[in-house]
Amino acid sequence: MSEIKHYLTGVRKFFKRLFARRIVIFGAVIVAFFIFVALFAPLISPHDPYKQDLKLSFAGPSREYPLGNDELGRDILSRLIYGARTSLSIGFVAVLISAGCGIILGLVAGYVGGAVNTIISRVMDALMSIPPIMLSLGLGIIFGSGMTSLMIILGLSTIPTYTRLMCAQVLAIRNSDYINAERVLGASNIRIMFSHILPNCLSPILVLFTMNIGGTILAEASLSFLGVGVKPPMASWGAMVNEGYNRLITNPVFALAPGICIMLLVLGFNILGDGLRDVLDPRLRGSI
Amino acid sequence: MKHLLQVDNLSVSFCIDETVIKAVNDVSYYIDQGETVGIVGESGSGKSVSQLAVLQLIQTPPGSIDGGKVMLEGENLLEYPANGPEMRRVRGGKIGMVFQEPMTSLNPVKTIGSQIMEPIMIHTNLNEKEAMERAVELLRLVGIPDAEKRLKEYPHQFSGGMRQRIMIAIAMAGNPKLIIADEPTTALDVTTQAQILELLKSVTVRNNTALLIITHNLGIVARYAQRIYVMYAGRIVESGRTEDIFAHPSHPYTRGLLNAIPRLDDRKDRKLQPIDPPSGIPENIDNCCPFLPRCRYKCDRCYNEGIPALKQTAEEGHFSACYLSREELDEMDKNKEKSIRIDCRKPAEDNILEIKKLTVRFPIKRGILQRKIGEIIAVDNVSFSIKRGETFGLVGESGCGKTTVARSILRLITDCEGDIIFNSLYLNRMKESELRRHRRKIQMIFQDPYSSLNPRKSAGSLVGESLKIHKLVSSRQEYERRVDELFSLVGLSPSWKNRVPHEFSGGQRQRLGIARALSTNPELIVCDEPISALDVSIQAQIINLLEDLQQKLGLTYLFIAHDLSVVKHISDTIGVMYLGNIVEIAPCEELYENPMHPYTKALLAAVPIPDPVVEKERERIILKGEVVSLINRPSGCCFCDRCPEVTDICRKQAPTAKDHGNGHYVACHKFD
């Protein structure tokens, strides 16, 4: 009982500190808004985002279509709302893939050390030295386009960051006394790694996780803009920017509306990540 | 009479998370020209904060000075703005400060010369050349050889003791009237501590500077201070001349402290009397004596009549803040339990652990390819054995290899030569998987109770972990019962099982660590400095607990510590280590009565005894130099370059340990 109670007061304190800075609330509201929109897209969107009506091609904003229609006469607002689904799900899944792989690799590299650490670290260094867009394009050629491969591509290209962070964390605590105490008790290596080291390394990973979602959404947009992204007719903000780009002068809404959405969502995640870092990093505690 | 510094009714509070904590409460004291005064108290008693408030060095917010007067030579310092020119003139100019941690109180990117010259040039009219000369003079004064050359060196090129000497030089640079030394030797080794304190004393006597020593070590004040203020929970509870306070302690807290600390000249059967943990906390705690919850003499007046004021006792200038007079306290003491330890252990004759020629080397690697360019011999050919049921104490200064020995025994360090034989099992020849089964017979208690408990696990699961690992229990009920039993065994309430470590105090955390060690039913427990991170009044509780558990469970301890008084109190046999070698092994009494090795003698002499009468008559052996680094180990005897009785053969040939009867082994050429 008291464990749950303790946990709850901990959560309450955590949010109190997290929202001590007003701007973090702003970030959280933006992120929550987009998550809401993505979850309930079918209920919110006024029209079918895939329904074409060539009569309405490039129609300007009207009462029925507040942001106008695109080349094929599809409602831009509805496509934006469905685009939030694509962006967020790609962002989350890709980051989950990279965090998952990175955490395991970093844990192994840091805990086992020696040659294993050297090999993993060098491979990660090699991955990092390839320009991200090049890497994604290269992987895109291998995996082909489409949502699943996009998630894998984006996931793979950010693994090194997690591996490095995790490895550094593990190195810092693997020789601490409480880990030694476990060893003295006779605990196995697997037990020490997953039951004792991993939970103590997660706070900075959580911060990186939040911040990376923003970055991944941005990368998805760039890749879709370059044509490696999701396949049409699926709605994605990046692809919409790509389509609207040619008519920036005549119909600026086409490109600006998805662009602004990307900007807001990334900003939201970055602010939230910043806030999390301030709360979770004990060195910064008390300075805000 | 005018005092040099007079502090009246100083109050300081901190506001943390919207709660106001009164760190210093209505504190008054004074210090005269050329006097040495000690302020004693445990961590959190407000002793450092009150000094920082005098210099207005408190960070605001969260801190604030709520009231009081600080009169330095007739000026009230608190009237000046914290960063105004007047305060800057006082800091470094009239009051110099020496901080606790010499490793962090010097700026690592500036030469020590420029750091000493800075205050000289700020507070005097000397130009750069003259300031340089003065800096050299100061460095010579604090006993740093080759002063001119070393001015251009950086802090990392100096050892801890040397840095503290430099701090003293900086504090002296502005020719201050008063030096405040905040725990100046807590971070240093015992022999270095003696050097630094002697230096502070001689420097201040020569310049007729007043010295204020803040410390938790009663031995230090007994040896050096003329007057003492005892602080508890932000208040001064007793003050007076050193002799008076030690001869007739009049406040329950002071009495408790003196009964709680082990002394070097103790009788072997003395039982320490820890200060009780808080109990019976009154409702209107803010209006009561702050010591009331822990006081063993409390009476009705303590609850009803508010906070007691300091009032004079039988001696001139000796004040105590307690309603009860000393006679009343003495009367109540008569009815209390006798402080004698009954030893009913029966040490067996067989050895539970034998260490044979243990040598641990750490390679020094450099460059990209990590080539080995040399090695450090951390433990050099160490042999000793521990009998079943006894306590073997291992003492030595930092870097002497005592922790490395412990970690080798527990196989946390695997690269070592020699044999570790536990219950006739060769631990060092076992494979990791085989070893894991035998692990539970040897357990460890760690030094730092804050870093040795996983912060994310509940107390119950920390203690019960090994029960699961080794499948020592068969059912959930048995598991819970065993955990409860372990909690009660170390004096913790089983209802606290679900708390996480940071909800416990330091002493309670250490109890958790002990419960964890006991959970596997071990035969041998390695205690690596188990009490050095704890407050004085808590230390006694843990020592008593360890002693009780030994009697109850028939445990064997390997007790590692740098504090000789504690080791003497708890151990049956003692080994003294220096630079990776054991220089002397002897039964406890024998070692303290008849120390043979020059290092043991110096070590014993360096420990201050909390009794000014005894202190005056003791022989002082101040060793030259500091513990040398393991990289520059001297050839021949490891102690030869500090030994006062060194001869030619010591420099050429390392001595071997020889038996001198009664189990007394010494490695010294003098006794060949």
- Mean pLDDT figure of chain B: 85
Tally of alpha and pi helices of chain B: 23
- The assigned CATH architecture of chain A is Orthogonal Bundle
Please state the overall shape of chain B, judged from the principal axes of the Cα atoms. globular
Tally of DSSP β-strands of chain A: 0
- Oligomeric state, counting identical vs distinct chains: heterodimer
Please summarize the sheet with the most strands of chain A.
Answer: none
Question: How much strand of chain A?
Answer: under 5%
Chain pair forming the biggest interface: A-B, 20 and 33 residues
Could you tell me the radius of gyration of chain B in angstroms?
Answer: 26 Å
Given as residue ranges, the uncertain stretches of chain A (5+ residues, pLDDT < 50) are none
Number of helices, counting only DSSP H or I runs of 4 residues or more of chain A: 12
Instruction: Give the fraction of residues assigned to helices of chain B.
Output: 25-40%
The overall average pLDDT of chain A, rounded, is 83
**Content-based structural category of chain A:** mainly alpha
Head-to-tail CA distance between termini of chain B: 62 Å
The CATH architecture term of the domain at 1-94 and 176-247 in chain B is 3-Layer(aba) Sandwich
- What is the string of SSEs of chain A from the N terminus onward? HHHHHHHHHHHH
Number of domains of chain A: 1
